[in-house]
Amino acid sequence: MSTTILLCPPIFYDVKYSINPWMKGEKVDHALAIHQWFQLKNVLSHLGLTIKEIAQAPDLPDMVFTANAGTVRGADVVMSNFKYTERKREIEEFSSWFKKEGYTVHHLPKNVSFEGCGDTVINNNLLIGGYGYRSDLKALRMTAEILNLDLLPLKLINPNFYHLDTCFTLLGPESALYYPGAFSSYTISKLKKHLHLIPVSPEEANNFGCNSIVYKHHIIMPANNESLADSLDEKGMECRIIDTSEFLKSGGSLQCMTLWI
Ligand code: ARG
């Protein structure tokens, strides 16, 4: 299990365009965004995780969502191919960072969309991947092949939950949180063959309850999900809550701001 996380301090974070239904042009409180990000960084450091940082480019307001940079396994990284022009240039920044750190950097063909750990999570030898909005099924197949993983592809069907990490959180190798409203019943039955699933309510899903970060028995959860936190607490998980109001204005929260490397 990786114990290193890539973060991007949100110095130039903003909501300047709209590429998902949450981005409604609400004004960002910049000081508050920086405060919320530091809370995340502090909690991660307290858990003993190693933090690496990449500097944000001034013209790339969404670069703080490092989960979207790519998918990492060992020394290999498959870089994203962002769906929307607004984010495409992030790839130059992230690829040169990975090259400098000594990773083998893989690029998918330009005509397939892929948004890294926004849409993928690795569970042992299985790549669990979401497709339909930001990532193509073809990209998931190619990524699984490059990283030598089996693939469990999950079709996303709700535009509000446009990345897998907005509606699915792996809690451990055998269980996951998920929002049923983001998947078809066929996809849910496929998932149930692999994992014990704990559903979250529409309200918790809208509060980005599934965008939590899990490390061992710890879970860091976006605010306003207290009853979900309590129920996981009863299952032996230790929950911490962080308010990410400023990042929700961009359609992102805790998991989106972290990339396991
Ligand atoms: N505004 C960003 C976008 O729409 C938010 C990305 C959220 N990232 C994630 N991993 N879900 O691309």
Key terms for this structure?
15 strands; 261 residues; 8 helices; alpha/beta; globular
Which radius of gyration do the C-alpha atoms yield? Answer: 17 Å
What's the SSE pattern?
A: EHEEEHHEEEHEEEHEHEEHEHE
Distance between the termini: 10 Å
How would you characterize the largest beta sheet? Answer: 3 strands, mixed
Ligand inventory reads: arginine
Q: Given the structure, what is the number of helices? A: 8
Number of strands: 15
Overall mean confidence score, pLDDT = 98
Query: Based on helices, strands and strand pairing, what is the structural class?
Result: alpha/beta
Shape estimate: globular
Q: Roughly how much helix do the residues carry, as a percent range? A: 25-40%
Spatial order of the strands in the main sheet? 2-1-15
